Amino acid sequence: MSIDFPEIEEGQYAVLFVELDTGIVLNVNFKRATGQDERWTIFNSFKEAEDFSWHISTENPKVECSIYDFSKKYIETINRNGIFSSKS
Questions:
Q1: E strand intervals along 1-88
Q2: How far is CA 82 from CA 55, 75, 86, in A?
Q3: How do residues 67-83 score in pLDDT, each as one tens digit?
């Protein structure tokens, strides 16, 4: 499945949710994504994206959150096991 990256502006960040154990992409309601389901949540700062991702991974330990910047660059993934980044 191809996942279209959203059009966002410089300084914004997009978060993608997946099932931690399977890698299956989830929609914004944390259900397995199908068809044209919305898959990305957009934030106006990295701090907002990271704080929300921590909250989601704490409330839903089977979900991991991957954060990307406006240029589609992968920044980090947050899940119940911690933070993982391209620098890790």
A1: 13-19, 40-43, 63-69, 74-79, 82-85
A2: 12, 14, 14
A3: 999 999 999 999 999 99
Strand pairing class (63-69; 13-19): antiparallel
Determine what percent of the chain is predicted with pLDDT higher than 90.
89
Tokens of 22: 């399977």
State the pTM of this model.
0.91
Full strand arrangement of the beta sheet holding 74-79: 40-43, 13-19, 63-69, 74-79, 82-85
Q: Helix (H, G, I), strand (E, B), or coil: what is residue 83?
A: strand
- As a whole number of angstroms, the distance between CA 34 and CA 63 comes to 17
Rounded Cα–Cα distance for residues 66 and 57 (Å): 11
